[in-house]
Write a sequence for this structure.
């Protein structure tokens, strides 16, 4: 029998208060302690919302992250941060990493970016870019792509393994939009899969790959061989009829709730689509997720979609 769980897959939007607090900090009107006080408060609010809704794995909202690549770009040796580039087809931007030497992890990367204290042991969800996405969105200079890719993979693995020991991770998600944004050649997909495996080597927490902003079939069949427990799909960009044709021998995340549209989806409509998927496949676990990060939405709308995911799960469990 399939079990259903609500799950978030990316960065949560900042409230107006937090946006103003970051602005005051950047203008040196407040100090870091004052910024952290607001960050901890707002992270705690999102954490408690998920716990109250019985989410299996809980994120802290990633409210300190300016973009998905930034902590790695700022903290890894051999990487510098340059100007702004557009984040796929979204009206958001990221600071482009520039590779200036051998990429290495010299110290903790995420310590100052996460707020896990209110999350019970083995329920914290960590989200990072997959190594291929980080490398492909970086300026490499004269470095070879594959060399940088596996340096990034190794550094990320070291960070994840240390966090698993210190924080107690429940799930590690690698977000991989570069694998589905356009169709890659077979060699690139195999390289991306191998880098994912290297990045997650030895990790005992549940391992997930998420594929936002594109048709998941662009990464097939190679991504199906990655050593992960769960594959998450952006169902606003992936055709259900085509996805149903693949037998996936692990958990799946079905992102029918649009992370880039303020419309609150009809529970019955989403439930029907999940049931249609179940007619062809019956995985042990289905996560009901947004299609992508909710950071594109106003905070109140994003919070309502957090509740919506649980309502959809409740409806599906009634059927089961």
């Amino acid at each position: 029998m399939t079990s259903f769980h609500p799950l978030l897959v990316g960065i949560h939007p900042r409230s107006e208060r937090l946006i103003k607090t970051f602005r005051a900090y950047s203008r040196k009107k407040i100090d870091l302690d004052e910024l952290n006080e607001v960050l901890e408060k707002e992270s705690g609010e999102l954490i408690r919302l998920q716990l109250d809704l019985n989410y299996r794995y809980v994120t802290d909202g990633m409210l300190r992250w300016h973009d998905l690549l930034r902590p790695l770009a700022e903290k890894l040796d051999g990487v510098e941060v340059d100007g702004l580039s557009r984040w796929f087809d979204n009206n958001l931007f990221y600071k482009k990493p520039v590779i200036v030497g051998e990429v290495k992890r010299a110290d903790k990367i995420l310590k100052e970016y996460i707020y896990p204290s209110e999350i019970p042991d083995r329920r914290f969800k960590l989200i990072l870019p997959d190594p291929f996405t980080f490398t492909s969105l970086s300026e490499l200079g004269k470095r070879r792509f594959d060399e940088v890719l596996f340096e990034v993979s190794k550094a990320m693995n070291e960070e994840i393994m240390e966090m698993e020991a210190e924080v107690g991770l429940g799930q590690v998600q690698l977000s991989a939009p570069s694998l589905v944004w356009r169709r890659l050649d077979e060699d690139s997909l195999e390289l991306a899969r191998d880098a994912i495996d290297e990045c997650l080597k030895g990790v005992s927490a549940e391992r997930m790959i998420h594929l936002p902003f594109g048709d998941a079939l662009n990464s097939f069949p190679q991504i199906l061989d990655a050593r992960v427990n769960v594959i998450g799909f952006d169902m606003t960009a992936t055709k259900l009829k085509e996805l149903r044709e693949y037998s996936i021998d692990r958990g799946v995340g079905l992102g029918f709730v649009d992370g880039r549209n303020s419309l609150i989806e009809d529970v019955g409509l989403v439930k029907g689509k999940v049931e249609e998927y179940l007619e062809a496949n019956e995985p042990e676990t289905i996560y009901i997720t947004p299609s992508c990060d909710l950071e594109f939405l106003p905070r109140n709308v994003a919070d309502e979609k957090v509740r919506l995911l649980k309502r959809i799960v409740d409806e599906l469990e009634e059927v089961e």
User: Anything to note?
Assistant: Residues 62 and 157 are 19 Å apart (CA to CA). Strands lie at 3-6, 77-86, 93-104, 124-129, 169-175, 206-211, 230-234, 251-257, 285-290. The two ends are 8 Å apart (CA to CA). The longest strand covers residues 93-104.
